[in-house]
Amino acid sequence: MSAGTDRRLMALALTLGERNLGRTWPNPSVGAVVADEDGSLIVAGGATQPGGRPHAERVALASAGEAARGRTLYVSLEPCSHHGKSPPCSDAVIASGIRRVVSAIEDPDDRVAGRGHALLRAAGISVEVGCLADRARRSHRGHMTRVTKGRPAVTVKLARTTEGFAGSRSGPRLLITGEDARARVHLMRAHADAIMVGIGTILADDPFLDVRLPGLESRSPIRIVIDSGLRTPVGSRIVGDSGRVPTWIVTTAGASFEAERAFVASGAEVLRVEPDAAGRVDLGQALQLLGARGLTRVFCEGGPELANALARADLIDELTLATGRSARGQGDVPALGPDLQDFMDGLRLVGDEGAGSDLFMFWEKP
Ligand code: AOF
Ligand code: ZN
Predict the structure, then answer these.
(1) Which of 123, 143, 163 is the C-terminal boundary of a domain?
(2) Is the CB of 106 under 6 A from ligand 1?
(3) Following DSSP, what letter does each residue of 223-281 receive, concatenated?
(4) Which residue from 106, 309, 332, 360 has the fewest beta carbons nearer than 10 Å?
């Protein structure tokens, strides 16, 4: 089997898994493909199902049935070895008669951590690990970060004018990006477990923070507001329709309980963490709490102040900047605060993409 064929089929497995990102938390979204020996026949494919189960391998193997015998399994994350809420996938792989497994990366979950691969090898299956490992690490960054750091991976997305402004304090709201970029951002939302913003964004824009792409409306993730003083208006859109899409307001231990009652009556949830030295929500603690609730991927859409505070606390894993090349309006709030600018020196530019007349640039923590 050529390395190129392995990469092509692993890319397919990764793509299958990535389609369900945002729907499988607290589990990773894994992809699996069953193919014949020389890669000319794809027998079956599968991805982790919404809610995290069944796991990808089980979906692919169930669909292959007897046709799995003697074939190769491509899987974007090490098959599990533990008896969790489902029996181990490595047992299912062994029972299926699969002869060779190509796996992208080890699962750092300490219930697995190499044991899945070891079980397969002990059963006489040939196992190769590391195919498209970089892409798999990106694909599973949410899972890896939650397992190793206890918090979700954080992607910050900001829009800026070509002059570098994200908004205007004095004038009317800036129109920064166009329709194509907006659709691209909604697709990013659909692949996140939660969208997070600071209270400033709620007060300035009263956004819906949902997914409004035709056919993907049901994939709106949880909405989270970081709101130290519980200033979110009870009449705001994200509170008003929290029966449709969950809204969590993260505030400080001492914030008003009377205000909390009004949110709870509307269906929004209030989460409390200890304040930091400045009396604001301690962002490290807030993310630990979100990790404990099972979130693996948080998509933070600003504003600039929250993004800057996340950079100061070293809590950003990916940064996406959308530059609106035909932005209208005069800005006076810089998109990149001083801490975020410094933080960017430690990031790696990994790609860019045009959207209409706008430009997306993607950075990651190395
Ligand atoms: C796989 N294939 O598709 C996924 C895996 O609670 P459980 O039993 O569902 O196990 C969850 C753990 O299984 C999760 O933390 C991760 O290590 C692994 N996820 N493993 O073989 C999959 N989603
Ligand atoms: Zn499994």
Answers:
(1) 143
(2) no
(3) EEEE-TT----TTSHHHHTTTTS-EEEEEETTS-HHHHHHHHHHT-EEEEE-B-TTSSB
(4) 332
Residue 308 lies in domain: 150-364
Same domain (yes/no): 173, 96: no
The ligand 1 atom nearest the CA atom of 54: 3
pLDDT in tens, 55-107: 999 999 999 999 999 999 999 999 999 887 788 999 999 999 999 999 999 99
Task: Tell me if residue 57 is catalytic.
Answer: yes
For the chain, give the longest Cα–Cα distance. Answer: 69
Total domains in the chain come to 2
Determine whether the shortest distance from the Cβ of 136 to ligand 1 is under 6 A.
no
What string of DSSP letters covers 16-44? HHHHTTTTSTTS---EEEEE-TTSS-EEE
End residue of a domain, out of 117, 143, 169: 143
- Which of 16, 34, 9 minimizes the C-alpha distance to 98? 34
| Cα→Cα distances 17→85, 266, 285, 353, Å | 20, 35, 30, 22
Any atom of ligand 1 within 6 Å of the Cβ of 144: no
Same-domain check for residues 102 and 36: yes
Q: Which of 21, 48, 52 is nearest to 32 (CA)?
A: 48
* 291-348 per-position pLDDT tens digit: 999 999 999 998 999 999 999 999 999 999 999 988 777 788 999 999 999 999 999 9
Rounded Cα distance, 139 and 267, in Å? 32
Sign of the torsion angle spanned by Cα atoms 251, 297, 157, 241: negative
